[in-house]
Design a protein that fits this description.
This protein is of the alpha/beta class. The chain has ten helices and twelve strands. It is globular and about 60 Å long. The mean pLDDT is 95.
Length: 281
Amino acid sequence: MKVTERIHAIRHPFRLAVDDGVYVDRFVYSYALIGERICLIDAGVSGTSGLIEEALKSLGRSIEEVKLVLLTHAHPDHIGGCPAVRERSGAVFGAHEVDRRWIEDVERQYRERPILNFFELVAGPVAVEKVLKEGDRIEWDTGKHIRVIETPGHSLGSLSFFFEEEGALFSGDAIPAAGTLPIYVDPRASIESIKKLQKMPGVRYLFSSWHEPLRGEVISKVMEEGIQFIERIDAIVKELEKAKPSASLEELSLLALERLGIKAKKVLPMVQTSFGSHLSK
């Protein structure tokens, strides 16, 4: 999907296993920045990596022209297609140091954050040659720059990227989509990260993983809704913790999902982690 002359959104549909033989349909966006060279932001999942190649072919370009891949974080729907891109292009990969260990060692990620169909989504590891941190400014093409913004919360090493010349903010999963399954490890850090993005000057476009590409005034609305969603979950969990102090984390998570209007018979470990991050320490 062409959004601007230089920015193209690539939608990756995939299935997430929520129980044995039970799947839910999901999608995630990656983005191609087109210049003399090509930069990718995230790479989708293993089974949809061909969509990147198809998108570039439709522009008269090739995957071999990808020279840089910037990863917002290490989760399967963002890194799963990396090995295919590396094999075809030899691109350099960049990510935060904290998430690097899960990108370079996917077996470790699976042990520490199990997902039932993890290896359907992730083809394998890739080396991270470019370790990114707050304030880094990357010239990905002649006269075109991306600024690195640390936005932890969804993961401890989550990054956002600002394409300065286009006013385009790529936020990964830093801004939750209100009303969906909550997935983060630190709600307070998530809120602070969104507030940081709210204060950024010059943002004309918002490109997240979960939202359709956005522009204009709706950007601030989506950011505020993300904050309010986390705050609502915090209030629900605190109330349930007080009312049912002996409830297991799974029981509490099911009750919290019910309060949010989300029907579920079973709660994925990563969603339980989100609710657990609101409990009193």
